[in-house]
Design goal:
The structure is a single chain. This protein is an alpha+beta fold. It contains one helix and three strands. A hairpin with a 6-residue loop joins strand 1 and strand 2. The mean pLDDT is about 95.
């Protein structure tokens, strides 16, 4: 997943922030819950990055 990228967006439906993780070919690998603030969304991305390498955390 060396080419995977996080994408942050705001839903026009509920005005909440979301992120999705996309693989290098554009396939969505992971979608987030809604966040009320952009900083909360960025914190969610940081949590995924910190916890993803450890199977025991799932």
């Amino acid at each position: 997943m060396s080419n995977a990228k996080f994408e942050v967006f705001v839903s026009s439906r509920n005005l909440q922030y979301y992120f999705r993780l996309k693989s290098g070919n554009g396939e969505i690998i992971l979608g987030s819950e809604g966040y009320e603030t952009k900083q909360g969304c960025l914190n969610g991305i940081a949590s995924v990055k910190a916890n993803a390498p450890y199977d025991s955390r799932y």
